[in-house]
Specification:
heterodimer; A: alpha/beta; six-stranded mixed beta sheet; 14 helices; B: 125 residues; alpha/beta; Hypothetical Protein Aq_1857, Chain: A; three-stranded mixed beta sheet; 3 helices; 8 strands; 18% helix; globular
């Protein structure tokens, strides 16, 4: 029986200079023997070498997954849950190590990885361990002699493609429900940020039976494409941009498999005038909510990158809000005092600076920031951008295109209907925020905004027990919350007759 | 008549190298998170261009598309396709070589905008 939990914990928690693929319960060198260099955006330094895999490695991972598929699918929910809890415990026990690796590889502040990325990763494993134990099928009495039984069955082998903005957490969002539901997984971490997943496999690689969880490192074109296109996966999950999302859906159309797609957003953060009715803790909270576009340096699909402020308070509110943004401490993300670290890569930084240029060309008014940041010291080799706030109108490109950086575009609205209209004037629909002391404003905006999640008097909170996913071009399917188990399960109906008598038709 | 898509010599050289290696290519300008707003370079056989995709221009014989929903926002920008190093985990063909295509934008002047060519749509012939 799969019993990783009683084995000795993996001894290797030190960092290595080279990582292979994790296939069939062991580290396997890429078939072609190629590696690429993983660098830190903090200072450009080299972190490690990572397997540069291709279709042959994907095939090996699929072989391993298929070999493990039947046994894992038949493992009791209680046992699967126990092993997921072991993974959660090991993640918690290695909090500082994983948080440090994540910060070095992605550039996000250590205070975020210590408080959010890593603990939430562990919690998602615990949450889905709990869900799968509590899950039940259904029985329907069609008539006195005929019963419909509904069983939940695993899909089989699933492919998962992970983005670089929350490397460990997005992997956990996808792995935990898939594994809980009894699927075997072939997962491709982002080539910009592969290291935390590699380190994680050093920590938890012995927990699951071999072949249940397989990690293939490399580039989208060389690993993602053969994985997504394989006729040997039963489901594909993708988080990323729209063109590749479309490409993966086309592949899935060829093999007729289900997909979940999370493709980004341009989320409105709506501030009603009554937030300034009092100078109190709630106003302070709302101002923090305004500044949360800088969370994870804006590299979040749900970044509240459009702020809509009711015009009657605009001048007073924006003065306080911009001052709050201007105080954000940008610098070395390994410093616990740093609030905003490095953009994930040079290319990403260049894209963000390009959009700041577009905003200026469009005539948007830059209220703060607007330049590359130079924190000094070792960080001069890294990729930093000042938190930037533009004032303009919703038809501008900086209001409509996902910049994926610390750039906020602010405009005003007149009344509730205007707020809803501007909020919905976007091709995306992933997140939204609404801030008001009036519950009717909150409820009405919350129901009318076409987005999968509307944070109400809060923002950027990601509990496991709340569904996450997009409307419109932000994609489809949901992640987190127990209902995502549906995306990783088949429904088996047994329609049983307990009547001894023929139908009487022939 | 202004072109909507222009290309730096470095990007053109890379397109030609990929074209020689992979065969017929296309670009599709992405949106959304991560590599959103980056031009994705695919083999024509690896991406089915939709009937509503908008043809903005071409680099040699490689057509350059944007999705219909995104087009209104890119309609008045001159796009310069360039190459940069470092980063980008896209499915685009150049990424494994450690480089990535990027676009830089310049808004057309009113005079230029008035004389922009009509755009086509649909798959390459």
């Amino acid at each position: 029986m799969p019993d990783g939990a009683t084995r000795a914990e993996t001894a290797t928690t030190r960092l290595r200079t080279r990582y292979d693929n994790f296939i069939g319960g062991a580290w396997k060198a890429p078939v072609k023997g190629r590696y690429f260099t993983d660098r830190s955006p903090i200072d450009g330094s080299t972190l490690c070498e990572i397997a540069r895999s291709d279709a042959a490695d994907v095939d090996a991972a699929l072989d391993a997954a298929h070999a493990a598929r039947k046994r894992w699918g038949n493992t009791s929910p209680a046992e699967r849950a126990r092993l997921l809890n072991v993974i959660a415990d090991r993640i918690d026990a290695n909090l500082e190590l994983l948080a440090t690796v994540e910060t070095r590889d992605n550039g996000k502040p250590i205070r975020e990885t210590m408080a959010a990325d890593v603990p939430l990763s562990a919690d998602h494993f615990r949450y889905f361990a709990a869900c799968i134990r509590a899950e039940e099928g259904t029985i329907g009495e069609i008539d006195h002699d005929t019963i419909a039984y509904h069983f939940r069955e695993p899909m089989g082998v699933v492919g998962q493609i992970i983005p670089w903005n929350f490397p460990l957490l997005m992997a956990s969002w996808k792995m935990a429900p898939a594994l809980a539901a009894g699927n075997c997984v072939v997962i491709k971490p982002a080539s910009d940020t592969p290291m935390s997943m590699a380190v994680l496999m050093d920590i938890v690689g012995d927990v699951l039976p071999e072949g249940v969880l397989n990690v293939v490192f490399g580039h989208g074109a060389e690993v993602g494409t053969p994985l997504a296109r394989s006729p040997r996966i039963n489901k594909i999950a993708f988080t990323g941009e729209t063109t590749t999302g479309r490409q993966i859906m086309q592949y899935a159309a060829e093999t007729i498999i289900p997909q979940t797609m999370e493709l980004g957003g341009k989320s409105p953060n709506i501030f009603f005038a009554d937030v300034m009715d009092h100078d109190d803790a709630f106003l302070d909270k709302a101002l923090e909510g305004f500044a949360l576009f800088a969370f994870n340096k804006g590299e979040v699909c749900t970044c509240p990158s459009r702020a809509l402020v009711q015009e009657s308070i605009f001048d007073k509110f924006i003065e306080k809000a911009v001052a709050r943004v201007a105080r954000i401490k940008v610098g070395d993300p390994l410093d616990p005092a740093t609030q905003m670290g490095a953009q994930c890569s040079q290319g990403q930084m260049e894209k963000i600076l390009g959009y700041i240029d577009v905003g200026r060309q469009e005539g948007a008014k830059c209220l703060t920031g607007g330049e590359r940041a130079h924190p000094g010291g070792k960080c001069e080799g890294g990729f930093y951008v000042q938190p930037t706030v533009f004032y303009g109108h919703n038809k501008m490109r900086v209001f409509q295109e996902e910049i994926f950086g610390p750039v906020l575009s602010v405009t005003t609205f007149k009344d509730l209907d205007d707020a809803i209209a501007i909020g919905n004037d976007t091709i995306y629909g992933l997140g939204a925020g609404v801030w008001s002391r009036n519950i009717n404003n909150c409820y009405r905006v919350g129901r009318e905004i076409e987005a999968g999640r509307v944070w109400t008097n809060c923002y950027h909170v990601y509990p496991a027990h709340a569904a996450f996913g997009g409307y419109k071009q932000s994609g489809f399917g949901r992640e987190t919350h127990k209902l995502i188990l549906d995306h990783y399960q088949q429904t088996k109906n047994l329609l049983v007759s307990y009547s001894p008598n023929a139908l009487g038709l022939f | 008549m202004p072109d909507r898509v222009i290309v730096t010599p470095q990007a053109r050289a890379l397109v030609r190298r990929l074209r020689a290696h992979y065969g017929k290519l296309l670009f599709h300008l992405s949106g959304g998170c991560c590599e959103g707003s980056a031009p994705m370079c695919f083999r024509q056989s690896d991406f089915r261009v939709g009937a509503r995709d908008v043809l903005l221009g071409a680099i040699d014989d490689t057509p350059f598309y944007v999705g219909a929903a995104q087009f209104p926002y890119w309609a008045y920008s001159e796009l310069t396709v360039d190459v940069t190093t470092g980063g980008g985990d896209s499915f685009s063909l150049e990424a494994p070589d450690g480089v990535r295509f990027v676009v830089r934008s310049r808004l057309f002047t009113d005079e230029e905008a008035a004389s922009l060519p009509a755009v086509g749509s649909g798959a390459p012939a």
